[in-house]
């Protein structure tokens, strides 16, 4: 069997390493070299720790391969070398981190002229990053001794791998004191100022993008670190430098005092947006900082706003005259000029400035009529939803946020604004309600002519709903209602007709709530994208936030709006209706389903007649057969109806016992007595003939598919023929004593008569069935 054999294969590397002249490339050609290295194969690790092997590994990742090498194997050895050096083997980390010659050889990669080989740069950054994490003190001391380290990092900032290495130095150093020393060292080397100088029109786009991203990440990482480490009294030196007014002014002067460059402008705006980011509370429902916490990461530094305010006119001018863009042809038309990334980011900056709710900033925006220009762009570029969402955010914040506090007065008193100047500007100068109604009518007209629905209509609906909501329930409701009432009569009537007509109809159609409706109104910052609209506590350990789910459960309303009494009454009535046929209301008699003793009629009360079910044959007396025509009904002129008194429900019991049965074919058989001393008769002790009254209102039912005749006659159970001319109504007393029902069925040559005779005196019931065919009369007697 296969388990009898040892299928474990020995690595060929062990055999290969036994050779005295084995080379590093021969070992690296083995397919399982990485697996054996991570498994810490002693022979392999000892081989790699040789001085020559370590030097060759570093050379592979820092020097360009020969140009004549085939492309598919050109970076094979550099890749394997990088994986071996970063396999996290402690012996390799120790040798590489403690050997200064190897570190100098590795550091020499930064001295190459830009641009660096991006693949080799990624190998270099990966090896140095793992050394920073495993040997932080040795690597930091080595780098601080290099005077040109920061210069070389800034020089190659256009390479993404070098930017990643710079950020690694801020995040991978675990000892808090050592990290603080690194921050002070980088701040002394003016790394922030050097990165700011990279964001200017004279640099290329890669430098703009990487320098801007580096500064943004430094801001976020520093703020997160300050928030997590509550005991740290010293501020982050890099963040403090970035938030200085002169640093922000230098950023703005780089883009406004030189040629307009879209890449530089967008990069600077990205940095400003990151500076304006305020850390959102971790707990839902907290609009302010948590109790007992006044942390700078929860507010915007006032120096940043002071640096931006004088440049608002320059940003406003960018909305009017953006950097030159080529004409853009789209599927629906030509954009000349298109919105462009510059103007879109300026609108995002305005939205962030409005969120700060600073009086000086708001006053400057009102004086410049920046909101009016943004609304003009909204209605002009009908298909740019990136622009539409930013305009919606601006209007929503203006309508919902309280009035901005006024600037401090000379006497030291704070002057509070009674109402929002932005809302007044939005309704009066920008004519928001009139423009909404006009745009809606224009869209409806275009659609009626066969055109398409405009792309901003969804956002326009949300803006209109925001106005209606804030006028009713918002903090600025009275002011909004007053401004609407101050509109010209025609405009006010048009707005009221719009919100009660088109807007109401649209809201009815839009009844489905989208999954992202809760946070579509939030600013789409990178922090928001990482969290996807959820709070940090949503993903925290449940042990730490065990009360949060129960708090939410307590808000759930489990009440059901149901009419319990009506449902119970309906159920009981239905049940009584279903079982009424089995009840004997007002009767003291026994249950019909209970077992009872079998009762027999006396021998003298037996009658020479018998009955059966519909599927059996029955016979009649010879006297009755001889007096009647078997093919004619007894009373052809009588009314074949039966009246039943539904008010009285008799309970009677029939006892069925096995009795002898005799079948004959003549009158003699019909009249001959049945053998046996006792015969089981039905017990009709509680039966009342009243239920057999016939009425012309209730005809007898017949489900037979053949012709049927029904007659009602009074027959003497002893065989005496009653008066056929007497009706039921004529002699009621006789009917009370005796009643007979007869039905005649004709099917071709067959004629069958079935009769039921009830005698109240003798308390007997007799079923009779006679069949006739070709003048042959057969009688079958069944007595039960």
UniProtKB/TrEMBL annotation:
For this protein, the record's Pfam families field holds: SAPS
CC terms in the record's Gene Ontology section: cytosol; nucleus
Basic and acidic residues composition bias: residue spans: 625-644
> What's an example of a GO molecular-function annotation for this chain?
protein phosphatase binding
The record ties this protein, via InterPro entries, to: ARM-type_fold (IPR016024), SAPS (IPR007587)
Return the Acidic residues bias intervals. 614-624
Renumbered to this chain, region (Disordered) spans: 598-675
The family note in this entry says: Belongs to the SAPS family.
Name used for this protein in its record:
Protein phosphatase 6, regulatory subunit 3
Q: Which organism is it from?
A: Poecilia latipinna (sailfin molly)
């Amino acid at each position: 069997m296969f388990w009898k054999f040892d299928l474990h294969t020995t690595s060929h590397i062990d055999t290969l390493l036994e050779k005295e002249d084995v080379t590093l490339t021969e070992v690296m050609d083995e397919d399982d070299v990485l697996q054996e290295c991570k498994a810490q194969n002693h022979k392999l690790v000892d081989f790699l720790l040789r001085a020559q092997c370590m030097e060759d590994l570093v050379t592979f990742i820092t020097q360009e391969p020969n140009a004549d090498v085939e492309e598919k194997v050109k970076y094979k050895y550099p890749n394997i070398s990088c994986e071996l050096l970063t396999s996290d083997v402690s012996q390799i980390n120790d040798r590489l981190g403690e050997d200064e010659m190897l570190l100098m050889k590795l550091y020499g990669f930064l001295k190459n002229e830009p641009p660096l080989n991006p693949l080799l740069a990624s190998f270099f950054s990966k090896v140095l990053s793992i050394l920073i994490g495993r040997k932080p003190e040795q690597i930091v001391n080595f780098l601080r001794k290099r005077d040109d380290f920061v210069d070389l990092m800034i020089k190659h900032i256009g390479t993404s791998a070098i930017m990643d290495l710079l950020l690694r130095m801020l995040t991978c150093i675990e000892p808090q004191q050592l990290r603080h020393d690194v921050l002070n060292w980088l701040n002394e080397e003016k790394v922030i100022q050097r990165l700011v100088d990279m964001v200017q029109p004279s640099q290329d786009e890669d430098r703009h993008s990487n320098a801007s991203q580096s500064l943004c990440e430094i801001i976020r990482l520093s703020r997160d670190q300050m928030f997590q480490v509550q005991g740290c009294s010293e501020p982050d030196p890099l963040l403090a430098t970035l938030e200085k007014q002169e640093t922000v002014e230098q950023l703005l002067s780089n883009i406004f005092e030189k040629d307009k460059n879209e890449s530089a402008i967008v990069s600077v705006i990205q940095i400003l947006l990151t500076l304006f980011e305020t850390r959102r509370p971790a707990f839902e429902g907290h609009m302010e900082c948590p109790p007992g916490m006044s942390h700078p990461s929860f507010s915007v530094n006032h120096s940043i706003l002071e640096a931006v305010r004088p440049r608002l006119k320059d940003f406003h001018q960018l909305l009017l005259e953006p950097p030159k863009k080529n004409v853009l042809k789209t599927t629906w038309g030509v954009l000349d000029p298109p919105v462009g990334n510059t103007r879109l980011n300026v609108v995002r900056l305005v939205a962030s400035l409005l969120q700060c709710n600073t009086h000086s900033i708001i006053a400057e925006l009102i004086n410049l009529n920046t909101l009016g220009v943004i609304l003009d762009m909204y209605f002009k570029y009908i298909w740019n939803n990136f622009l539409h969402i930013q305009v919606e955010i601006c209007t929503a914040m203006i309508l919902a946020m309280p009035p901005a506090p006024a600037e401090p007065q000379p006497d030291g008193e704070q002057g509070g604004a009674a109402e929002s100047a932005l809302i007044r500007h939005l309704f009066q100068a920008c004519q928001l309600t009139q423009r909404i109604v006009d745009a809606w009518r224009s869209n409806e007209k275009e659609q009626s002519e066969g055109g398409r629905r405009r792309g901003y209509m969804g956002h326009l609906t949300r803006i209109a709903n925001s106005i209606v909501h804030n006028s009713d329930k918002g903090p600025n409701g009275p002011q909004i209602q007053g401004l609407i009432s101050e509109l010209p009569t025609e405009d006010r009537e048009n707005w009221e007709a719009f919100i009660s007509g088109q807007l109401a109809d649209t809201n009815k159609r839009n009844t489905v709530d989208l999954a992202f409706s809760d946070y579509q109104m939030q600013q789409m910052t990178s922090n928001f994208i990482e969290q996807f609209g959820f709070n940090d506590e949503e993903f925290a350990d449940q042990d730490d936030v065990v009360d949060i789910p129960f708090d939410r459960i307590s808000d759930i309303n489990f009440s059901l709006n149901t009419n319990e009494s009506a449902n119970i009454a309906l159920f009981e009535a239905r049940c009584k209706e279903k079982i009424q046929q089995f009840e004997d209301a007002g009767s003291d008699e026994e249950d019909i389903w209970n077992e009872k003793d079998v009762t027999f009629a006396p021998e003298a009360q037996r009658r020479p007649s018998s009955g059966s079910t519909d599927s059996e044959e029955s016979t009649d007396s010879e006297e009755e057969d001889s007096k009647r025509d078997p093919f004619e009904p007894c009373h052809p002129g009588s009314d074949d109806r039966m009246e039943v008194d539904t008010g009285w429900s008799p309970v009677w019991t029939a006892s069925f016992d096995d009795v002898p049965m005799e079948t004959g074919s003549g009158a003699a058989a019909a009249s001959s007595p049945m053998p046996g001393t006792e015969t089981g008769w039905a017990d009709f002790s509680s039966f009342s003939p009243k239920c057999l009254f016939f009425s012309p209102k209730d005809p007898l039912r017949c489900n037979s598919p053949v012709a049927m005749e029904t007659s009602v006659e009074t027959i003497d159970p002893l065989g005496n023929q009653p008066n056929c001319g007497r009706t039921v109504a004529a002699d009621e007393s006789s009917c009370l004593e005796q009643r007979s029902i007869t039905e005649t069925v004709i099917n071709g040559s067959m004629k069958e008569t079935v009769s039921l005779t009830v005698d109240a005196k003798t308390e007997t019931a007799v079923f009779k069935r006679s069949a006739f065919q070709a003048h042959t009369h057969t009688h079958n007697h069944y007595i039960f």
